[in-house]
Amino acid sequence: MNQQPPPSADSLNALLRVELAAVLACQNARHSLNGRLQDHSERLLGLAAGHQRNVAALQSCIRALGGVAASEPGTWGSFALLRDELSVQQLLEAEQRGLAEYEAALPSLDGEVRQLVEQELMPRQRRHVATLSRILSDLAPT
Length: 142
Hints:
By secondary structure, the chain is mainly α. Helix content is 70%, strand content 0%. The protein has 4 helices and no strands. The N and C termini lie far apart (65 Å). 35% of the residues are buried.
C-alpha cells in the first residue's frame, strides 16, 4: 500500500523550490558583479550559503516525512544581473516574497518542522532581507 506523505511535505517542497531558486539567483548575482557592486561580493556569498543551508535542512525534513525532495528550482521573477540599484531591488523583493512564503506555509506545519522554519529558516531569510536592504542603501546616490 502506497502511503501519501503528510501535507507538510508538500508545503516544504514548495519552500525548497523557492530556496533552490534563491541559490541560483545568488550565484548569478555574484557572477554578474561589476563596478561598485564588487564590494558586496562577500555579502552575496553569505546569502548563497544561507540559502544552501536552508536547502539542506528542507531536504532532510522532507525525507524524514517520507516525501521526495524537489530537485528543480521555482522561479524568482525576472531576476537578471546585479549591476545597478534596480536589480538589487528585484533581488530584495524576491527575498521578501520568500519570507512571505515561509509565513504562509506556517499553518500547514507542525512539530519539529514548524520549529525549524520559525527558529532557523525565517530568521535567516529576514537577515537576507536586511543584508540586501543595506546593499541597496549603500548604492543610493549620496
